Write the structure tokens for this entry.
Amino acid sequence: MKKIKSILNNPLFILFLSGLFLIISFLFTNILAEILAFFVIAPAFYALTKLEYKKRYLGGLLFFGAWMLPTSYWYFNFMPIWLAVLALSFFTLIAHVFHISNLIKKKSIFLDFAIIIVSWLFLTFLRINLPIIKDWWIPDIAYTQWQNIFVLQIANFLGIYGIIFLILITNATLAFLWIKKKKIVSIIFIIFVSFIFLFGNFVINNFAKTKGQSITFIAIQASPENGYQASTNINDIQKLKKITQSALEKIQNKSLKNIFVLWPENMIAENNTADLINFSKENNIFLVYSREEKTDGDPLNSVMMINDNGKEILKNYKIHKAPGEKISISKDGNKSIEINGIKITSAICYDLHYSDLQSRIKGNNLLFVPIDDDRFGKFMPYLHARDIIFRAIENRINILTASTNGPTFFVNKYGIIEKGPLKIYDEGYLIVETKI
């Protein structure tokens, strides 16, 4: 028993355990699991005050490695082992935040925690913005909050940094109360914070409704017949048509106009354009799809919109390559169109991971996003969904996605998921009737 008690009281073990419990907020998509992130880092803050400064970096490795490595395992699905290990090594950099305060001669708990929080935010900023590592999609703790709509509103003003700060300051406050042996106050603090979040989510979900023009979407989720590395063939197109027509039959109001249908990112060859134009006209729909455009080198990846008269009315190009993707890059990705007072634009998949998206979609009401996450495993689509929700709130824009394997869903400008997401790797459709 003494050995067990000694292990449980070991600051290094507490740091490791704190990181492991943080995974719950990543993996489980419900509000209670997400609120947990506001309390499970507190033991790590507490343990640091009991740990020698020379062991703090080791503590950082244990804490950050415990949740970063399991939530980034999908790197091994598409990278050589050496490159995946290199990409995951960011946790060895951010582990430094726990011992930077050792450089300050004046010691205090308040100053210690403040330095940790500021350092954490700064290193997260570097990870998101520095060349090379900005392409390494490594989760940060803001990703734990993708359905905590009340907390997510911070992103409209401060981006994910505001969310990270709120998580850290809440945990640090709880740890400070523990250190000061304020047990009753700690319990009241946990109950109060939980209540505020739950009540805030209830209010936003029930009262933050979008207003404006009525609009109907259909989003299709279907993987290409021969996998993500193969070109889309005629069978894939026929399948997408069939699923689309099945969805159209489910729409009760047959007199509806301006039905927008979004297909996934599967790079349909240019020689199929005439066929898709006819399909749009015959079914009286606006069709948005991913098109492969031939070049002397790798093809360009564009997202096209055809209106219900069979006219191509909008085209944007994919600006950022996903890891392992063989496409040419174009900077022509800022076009938009206005239909019935709704300003519409488009972007493709990996582009939503980058901050330059803001300048491309500014001033628009609706963003169409075809996606293909088929090479990255089942966890990646959920991370991608979180990025999409951040972009919706940061830019106050409604976003519809359609993916080969997920995420396929509609999120409004407040970050509320109105429909979906479809189950990962299932084939099917979403019908969304909303107002924008």
Observations:
- The chain has a mean pLDDT of 89.
- The chain has two domains: 2-207, 214-435.
